[in-house]
Design brief:
It is built from 8 helices and 11 strands. The chain has about 220 residues and is an alpha/beta fold. α5 (about 125-135) links the parallel β7 and β8 (about 140-145). α1 (about 15-25) crosses α8. It is elongated. Bound molecules: phosphoribosyl ATP and magnesium ion. Phosphoribosyl ATP binds next to α1, α3, β9 and α6.
Length: about 220
């Protein structure tokens, strides 16, 4: 890739959808919709700018190693990744949700989570979960899962889960209830530190356009 070309890492789904208006504000239009196309590299109306479509959890890795110059990733993903090699100039306020502890309806969480007790927690976010319970002085055994955390307490794999909640419909459909709010989550712009120096003239105007669009757009909280 030449000094003048830019590669942006995005995930399909909610992040791609909510990033489209930000890209538009920077004058960037994807040539294809990744939901319909199987292509992993998507061109744009700007010949030197392309998008790479990766798993949400892989965005920081592509940017960290410079395979993408910048990308957009959830705070959940960035916290678990650690953020090494990444400059995080902007909270874009998109893909908002909350990191919560949830348990089966009727489970006595207050009693089970007293200091000195031991809880089994299923989660995709072991670092966030471990940090939360350590701060409370509750001992936990963390069971790492890669999806469908909601199932774990229903089949006896865990007492509770640590997961993202937006509408609450998934918890409700599985007779679970949120019992603790760990943090608010939104997505951030992440930039490769070396790329920012070398391609500053190409990257900074995009950061500025994103920043302007993210703050101008006075989005009501969806949580
Ligand atoms: O889905 P896939 O396994 O391919 O990847 P992913 O889950 O890593 O990606 P994706 O696209 O689903 O999520 C990307 C980012 O969106 C996450 O890293 C979060 O920062 C953010 N985000 C915002 C969410 C949600 N809201 C959300 N509700 N990510 C996941 N969820 C899931 C949640 O895990 C739970 O299973 O949606 C379900 C709950 O939703 P409600 O509306 O029923 O409460
Ligand atoms: Mg998902």
């Amino acid at each position: 890739m030449s000094e003048h070309s830019l590669t942006i890492a995005l995930s399909k789904g909610r992040i791609f959808e909510e990033t489209l208006p930000l890209l538009a504000a920077a004058g960037i239009e994807p040539a294809e919709n990744p939901e319909q196309s199987r292509k992993l590299i998507i061109g744009t109306n700007r010949t030197h700018i392309r998008l790479v479509i990766v798993r949400a959890t892989d965005v920081p890795t592509y940017v960290q190693y410079g395979a993408a110059d910048f990308g957009i990733a959830g705070k959940d993903v960035l916290t678990e990744h650690g953020g090494e090699g990444l400059y995080q100039p902007l909270d874009l306020q998109i893909a908002r949700c909350r990191m919560m502890v949830a348990v089966p309806e009727g489970f006595d969480y207050a009693r089970a989570s007293q200091p000195g007790k031991r809880l089994r927690i299923a989660t995709k976010y072991p670092d966030i979960a471990a940090g939360h319970f350590a701060a409370k002085g509750v001992h936990v055994d963390i069971i790492k899962l890669y999806g469908s955390m909601e199932l774990a307490p229903l089949v006896g794999l865990s007492d509770a889960i640590v997961d993202l909640v937006s509408t609450g419909n998934t918890l409700k459909a599985n007779k679970l209830q949120a019992v603790e709010h760990i943090s608010d989550i939104s997505s951030r712009l992440v930039v490769n530190k070396a790329a920012l120096k070398v391609k500053y003239a190409a990257i900074q105007p995009i950061i500025d356009a994103f920043s302007h669009a993210a703050t101008a757009d006075d989005q009501p909280p969806n949580i």
